[in-house]
Design goal:
Blueprint lengths: L2 H15 L3 E5 L1 H17 L4 E7 L2 H4 L10 H4 L6 E3 L7 H15 L3 E6 L11 H5 L11 H13 L3 E5 L1 H5 L3 H11 L3 E3 L15 E4 L4 H7 L5 E5 L20 E6 L2 H6 L4 E4 L2 H11 L24 H11 L5 E5 L4 H7 L8 E2 L9 H11 L5 E6 L9 H7 L5 E6 L4 H9 L15 H8 L3 E3 L3 H9 L6 E6 L6
Parallel strand pairs: 1-2, 2-4, 3-4, 5-6, 5-8, 6-7, 8-9, 9-10, 11-12, 11-13, 13-14, 14-16, 15-16
The structure holds the ligand Cc1ncc(Cn2c(C)c(CCOP(=O)(O)OP(=O)(O)O)sc2=O)c(N)n1.
């Protein structure tokens, strides 16, 4: 229900399965509704294949109802490819191209199809198209690998920065092996939509701050920074400064042509990071020392309501180690990373463009795509409204997912950003009086409100056989 929620679900499903996902939209209005969630899918590099309804060809020009005027232009800034077949015979090839474009670019594609095309008979050649396969392989040359290995070997104090692609392409464990093999201090690239490294690992140095000057300060002292599977960088609040500290060389390895071309500094090798990791592991001697995971600090406590750290410590202590968390709580990131202890690939999903409306739907999509692992959505009371109709889907298909709603009564991140910009107390950021237990019951999802930390832990220890929502009153905090 609502194309934004559907695209959010498809994004979660694509990230959980790594497969192209077909999403069918209603002409222009449906495509417009999808665009917000689509911005996240662009930056999570999810291969979504969007098809959209279209009026019959003879009625598009006169703009009959349902006409999607200039359909291929509507989504163009966001999608890797956008098309509308010039005749019914070209629909099979166009659909095949939409799938291959999404897979090759790892970016959504869009196909508008006039609705009378579907009645046409396939011609004999269509079978040839439907049998096609298209594969990609971006392996660096031997010379490029040798050059990179020698550069890392010669570095006096190298550091590793890992991006969401490391987790999205199944390289999580190999990246940990590389960091331990070479004893590399390791950061997660800023504004992460996935977790590519265990956040309690002794080599973990944190998520890089999303500002130019603070990143430069964090990397000071490292003569080489190797960035794997990340854009350089996904800045957020504008904090001007030098892009890199004096004497630091940055090398980015990514298969994302656009990310390599638009970076403002450093060197880039457009390639799959996997062969680079394997070459470094194979050709460089181990500098490993014993690594014991770092313990968790005691959570801060709230006065009138729970502190978000108490909620996250309760999740850490009660949920299975392989739980997948889909998070859209925008002012609690620091509390989250202070308390969580995530050690498995595919443990963390966050809206890749910061577009709200991802969390609740994507939790449903991730749960549908990976029924073998428990899924918990951790959603702010502001964010939950942007994709709320996904509750119906969870109830209708009895998707086993736990939604934890952090009800702090404010748009916390906006209040923080307002202060950052010198405009404290921004109007319109209070959202009191929302009751997600009534809303959830209305969509068919059983729901409760917890009255304290002990009650929360007791509820989290139970295992639902379908969807459930737990509403927790929390104190506002800052990111
Ligand atoms: C589609 C959309 N609309 C508006 C915003 C702006 N926005 C908004 C409205 C936020 C408030 C989220 O409130 P919350 O209750 O979900 O979480 P916190 O209170 O922890 O910030 S954070 C943020 O960037 C957005 N990111 N995406």
């Amino acid at each position: 229900m609502h194309e934004g929620a559907v695209v959010g679900m498809a994004d979660g499903y694509a990230q959980a399965t790594g497969r192209p996902v077909l999403v069918n939209l209603h002409a222009a209005a449906g495509s417009g509704n999808a665009m917000g969630a689509l911005t996240n899918a662009v930056y999570s590099r999810s291969p979504l294949v969007l098809t959209a309804g279209q009026q019959v060809r003879s009625a598009i020009g006169l703009e009959a109802m349902l006409a999607n005027v200039e359909a291929t232009q509507l989504m163009r800034p966001l999608v890797a490819w956008s098309g509308e077949p010039s005749c019914a015979e070209d629909v099979p090839r166009s659909l095949a191209q939409a799938v291959f474009e999404a897979e090759l670019h790892r970016r959504p594609s869009y196909l508008s199809v006039p609705y009378d095309d579907w009645a046409a008979e396939l011609d004999a050649n269509a079978a040839a198209t439907l049998e096609r396969t298209v594969r990609r392989g971006l392996t660096p040359s031997e010379a490029q690998l040798d050059d990179l290995v020698k550069t890392v070997e010669a570095a006096k104090n190298p550091a590793l920065v890992l991006g969401g692609d490391v987790d999205a392409t199944g390289l999580f464990d190999r990246a940990v092996a590389l960091a331990e093999h070479l004893d590399l201090p390791t950061w997660v690239a800023p504004s992460p939509h996935r977790l590519p490294f265990p956040n309690r690992h002794p080599l973990f140095r944190g998520v890089l701050p999303a500002g130019i000057a603070p990143i430069s300060a964090a990397l000071t002292g490292h003569d080489l920074v190797l960035v794997l599977g990340a854009p350089v960088f996904r800045y957020h609040q504008h904090v001007p400064g030098a892009y890199l500290p004096e004497g630091t060389r940055l090398i980015q390895v990514t298969d994302d042509f656009g990310a390599a071309a638009r970076a403002p500094m450093g060197e880039a090798l457009v390639a799959d990071p996997a062969p680079v990791i394997e070459a470094l592991l194979k050709q460089l001697p181990a500098r490993a020392t014993q690594h014991d995971y770092v313990g968790n600090p005691a959570p801060k406590t709230g006065e009138k309501a729970l502190h978000p750290e108490q909620v996250f410590a309760a999740l850490r202590d009660t949920q299975a180690a392989d739980t997948r968390y889909v998070v859209e709580s925008t002012s609690t990131n620091s509390a989250w990373w202070r308390q969580m202890d995530l050690r498995r690939e595919g443990s963390y999903f966050f809206p890749a463009a910061g577009g709200l409306g991802f969390g609740l739907p994507a939790a449903v999509g991730v749960a549908m795509g990976s029924p073998d692992r428990p899924v918990v959505g951790v959603i702010g009371d502001g964010s939950a409204n942007y994709g709320i109709t996904a509750l119906w889907t969870a109830a209708h298909y009895r998707v086993p997912v736990t939604f934890v709603i952090l009800r702090n009564g404010v748009y916390g991140a906006l209040r923080w950003f307002g202060e950052l910009l010198g405009t404290p107390d921004v109007p319109g950021t209070e959202i009191p009086g929302l009751d997600f237990t009534s809303i959830a019951e209305g969509y068919g999802v059983p729901a409760t409100t917890v009255t304290g930390e002990a009650d929360l832990r007791d509820q989290l220890k139970t295992t639902p056989d379908g969807p459930r929502l737990i509403q927790v009153d929390t104190e506002p905090t800052t990111p």
